[in-house]
UniProtKB/TrEMBL annotation:
UniProt remark on cofactor binding: Binds 1 FAD per subunit.
InterPro entries: Cbr1-like_FAD-bd_dom, FAD-bd_FR_type, FNR_nucleotide-bd, Globin, Globin-like_sf, Globin/Proto, Hmp, OxRdtase_FAD/NAD-bd
Protein name: Flavohemoprotein
UniProt-annotated site: Involved in heme-bound ligand stabilization and O-O bond activation, residues: 29
Binding residues annotated for NADP(+), in chain numbering: 273-278
Keyword Membrane among UniProt keywords: no
Boundaries of every FAD-binding FR-type domain copy: 152-261
Family according to the record: In the C-terminal section; belongs to the flavoprotein pyridine nucleotide cytochrome reductase family.
Domain comment in the entry: Consists of two distinct domains; an N-terminal heme-containing oxygen-binding domain and a C-terminal reductase domain with binding sites for FAD and NAD(P)H.
The organism of origin for this protein: Halalkalibacter oceani
Gene: hmpA
GO terms classed as biological process: cellular response to nitrosative stress; nitric oxide catabolic process; response to toxic substance
Domain Globin: 1-138
Length: 398
């Protein structure tokens, strides 16, 4: 535990971290990867280039400083990050490396403001926080391995089927190469896929939501080909263009805290683009396990050619009176007839669909989309405990 003096020193750095946090974390990653390039086999290079990883770490450091006297308040964030770490293969031996370079980055960026007292206080605080992460993640590794058919790190899977779902999304049905039973997962969770791409110096790992219901003899991921952006998605493009049925992938055990919970309230699932993948899993699970629960599924896509998994959702809506599905097409093509709104989701339209606001809301999609949905929820006065969302990539602020 930290003494009161250390806590006071850490709290005194909150304003500085608010102002210089991203500069510190940017410098941290640069120096750490220079000194330990092997860690590039774990970290997402695209998120580094976009600055998302730096921003996420800056937010985490700021939150730790702000709540250093009540670390239990950040345990939900610890759990979320620990799930990600376990799925990536982060181990206890990585934490001293991170701590050393984070403290050095504070010294380099803050210079004379980083007094010996401040650096020592942060060294003590980092030790406590690192121990929490190491302990939580050790339990997660143990649980992943101990479950029936489980494994701790990565395991070889075979692509049993590859199905084109839209112009940019393909589904991969994955089965264990050793033929063993698959561990269960919770609707909304993800797996990590580990690839060694020819011509690439480092291994690439990406997380993809499981897009089908639990209880199958396969894991299904539905991957958007991210080749029309900068930087282009190397893993998604490689999966689409070079991997086919019969090929193998290294896969982590399922992870993640964005999961469907049981509730008496109606369920509202709102997705944009490929963000529908965890929500389709939730929809199927709710229909099967939460019989009679009212479910409203709302999806936003560019047009019908970019709308994946629609047939599966339509079938559920047609076969269950408690399930309704609505679609918003940003730029519907001339031949598109079966959609409910053109343009963007807006507050007025969502109000006409949802009606009863006393519901549990799950939403996922591009950052801008999620910010817009969250703002609508705020305008409606929806309580925070009714809102559930997940970012594809490092956690950010809405």
């Amino acid at each position: 535990m930290l003494d009161q003096k250390t806590i006071e020193v850490i709290k005194s750095t909150v304003p500085v971290l608010q102002e210089h946090g991203e500069k510190i974390t940017t410098h941290f990653y640069q120096t750490m990867f220079t000194n330990h390039p092997e860690l590039l086999n774990i970290f997402n290079h695209a998120n580094q280039k976009k600055g998302r990883q730096q921003a996420a770490l800056a937010n985490a450091v700021y939150a730790a400083a702000l709540h250093i006297d009540q670390l239990e308040t950040i345990l939900p964030v610890v759990q979320q990050i620990a799930h990600k770490h376990r799925s990536l293969g982060v181990k206890a031996e990585h934490y001293p490396i991170v701590g050393e370079h984070l403290l050095q980055a504070m010294k380099d960026v803050l210079q004379e403001a980083a007094t010996e007292e401040i650096i020592q206080a942060w060294a003590d605080a980092y030790g406590v926080i690192a121990d929490i992460f190491i302990s939580v993640e050790a339990d997660m590794y143990e649980q992943a391995e101990a479950q029936q058919g489980g494994w701790p790190d990565f395991k070889s899977f075979v692509i049993d089927r590859k199905v084109k779902e839209s112009e940019v999304i393909a589904s991969f049905y994955l089965k264990p190469a050793d033929g063993k039973v698959l561990p269960p997962f919770l609707a909304g969770q993800y797996i990590s896929v580990k690839l060694e791409i020819p011509g690439e110096q480092y291994t690439h790992i990406r997380q993809y939501s499981l897009s089908d219901a639990p209880g199958q003899d396969y894991y299904r991921i539905s991957v958007k080909r991210e080749d029309q952006q900068e930087p282009a998605g190397k893993v998604s493009t490689y999966l689409h263009q070079h991997l086919n049925e019969g090929d193998r992938l290294l896969v982590s055990a399922p992870a993640g805290e964005f999961i469907l919970s049981k509730s008496a309230r109606p369920l509202v699932l709102i997705s944009g683009g490929v963000g529908l993948t965890p929500l389709v899993s939730m929809l199927k699970t709710a229909v099967r396990e939460q019989k009679g629960r009212d479910v409203t599924f709302i999806h936003a896509a560019i047009d019908s050619k970019h709308h994946a998994l629609r047939a599966e959702v339509d079938q559920l809506a047609a076969g269950h009176e408690h399930v309704r599905a609505f679609y918003c097409y940003e730029r519907p093509a001339a031949e598109d007839q079966q959609y409910d709104k053109s343009g963007y989701l807006d507050e007025e339209w969502l109000q006409t669909i949802i009606g009863n606001k006393d519901a549990d809301y799950y939403f996922c999609g591009p950052v801008g989309f999620m910010k817009a949905v969250d703002q609508i929820m705020t305008n409606w006065g929806i309580a925070e405990e009714q809102k559930h969302y997940e970012f594809f990539g490092p956690a950010m602020k809405l």
